[in-house]
Amino acid sequence: MSFQQGLSGLNATSKNLQVIGNNIANANTYGTKVSRAEFSDVYANALNGAGANSVGIGTTVTTVAQQFTQGTIKITDNPMDLAINGAGFFQVAGPDSAISYTRNGQFKVDREGYIVNNGGLRLMGYATDGLGGVLPGVSAALQLPTGGIAPAATSAIGLEFNLDSRSAVTVPGTGPAIDFGDARTYNNATSMTVYDLQGREVALTYYFQKSGDNAWNVFATANGNTVAGTAAAPLPVTTMTFAADGSAPTAPAAPVTFNIPATTLPGGGTTEAIAGVELDLLSATQFGASFGVTDATQDGYAAGQLTAIVVEGDGVVTARYSNGRAQAAGQIEIANFRNPQGLQPLGDNRWGRTNASGEAILGVPGQGNLGVLQDGALEESNIDLTGELVNMIVAQRIYQANAQTIKTQDQVLQTLVNLR
After folding, report:
1. How confident is the model at residue 44 (pLDDT cuts 50, 70, 90)?
2. In this predicted structure, what is the pLDDT of residue 265?
3. Does one domain contain both 106 and 238?
4. Interval 289-318 mean pLDDT
């Protein structure tokens, strides 16, 4: 009888409608993937043997397969929203340390500084050494810094500038080698801010005094106090000499070292002395052009408070501070699988690894065939709502057709029973 075929069709189509209904329900769920019911026909060889005239006994749902195609990236206003553009899954772990995988990048920071999803599961990645260096290896729950960043004293200074070879010699004929209050005793000056051990600012001013052909004296003051010599008899920090073509200086041939003395601040406080500061003047030139500083660098900084967290495309979580410094606080590790369709759905936008999916292939975003991250964005579901509604209409018609076969078979059976 054909009741079996019609009944299997009803069951299979009912399962298909459930899958379609689940797709429609999750059309607005970030990171979810569309599912589809896949069917196969059923034959019972024991009934009719293996002849060419065998008739199947219906259909069955072989599997419900998820389609891991890329969803649309939607820009949001939350910097902690993350989207993977390409292959890969975020790794999240609960209190039992069990790892699950998700494409939903709606993350937040909990009261302990951990990056967590809406279910409280912690995002996994690499820690840092405290100085901004990422420590690749075994991943752990990412925890953001809550405190500020300690200050650092200046230890190296670099200046790139041009001295005007057309300038006149300005060495005084009598008295001190330079009078910082008299612009006639030097040719040019420039300033920069450096920092002591406690991050207090020191205004360092350089004075360039032409002493002869292709020769210049370089003096410096810290908060108005001479760096070398005494207030009555200032001395140059170094003397620069240039070749005839005015290119890089022939002396000094290496960075020079000097000490910055303790100074008094305008508010009455004092700064610590800074010893052993290296001054690099090797990029200076002396051409027949106006004086100008094209680059000035120093490696010190004041204390700073955390102001923002930024996630880079390669997964590096960067902490930005009020003193302008930026330091890596960790790096997100993502996972991929040879067979993503073998992952087991766990609910809450998560999947679990199975034997069918294979082992997780781990790496950082952008590495190998792994996708890159985009912060302030979320991946929408890849469900085509219009297509699902059409599929629902088709499934409904198939359900009705299967019901009709049962109805017809019932009528045939009723006719047989009524035979006399």
Report:
1. confident
2. 82
3. no
4. 92
**Which residues, in sequence order, are CB contacts of 177 under 8 Å at separation 6+?**
171, 209, 217, 219, 229, 233, 234, 235, 236
pLDDT at 51 over 60: no
Clarify whether residues 134 and 40 are in a common domain: no
In Å, how far are 187, 192, 249, 411 from 324, measured between CA atoms? 33, 16, 32, 84
Per-residue pLDDT at 394 exceeds 70: yes
Q: Does 261 lie in the same domain as 178?
A: yes
Of 274, 298, 322, which one is at a domain's C-terminal end?
A: 298
* Distance in angstroms (rounded) separating the CA atoms of residues 59 and 292: 83
The pLDDT of 317-325, averaged and rounded, is 90
Query: Per the structure, how many domains does the chain have?
Result: 3
pLDDT tens per residue across span 371-391: 999 999 999 999 999 999 999
At position 76, the amino acid (one-letter code) is: T
Distance separating alpha carbons of residues 134 and 314, to the nearest angstrom: 12
The 8 Å CB, 24+ separation contacts for 409-417 are 409/1, 409/2, 409/3, 409/6, 413/1
The answer to whether 309 and 317 are in contact (CB under 8 A) is yes
Verdict on whether the full-model pTM lies above 0.70: yes
Instruction: Pick the closest to residue 329 from 80, 77, 78 (CA basis).
Output: 80
Q: Could you tell me if 161 and 277 lie in one domain?
A: yes
> CA nearest 332: which of 82, 31, 12?
82
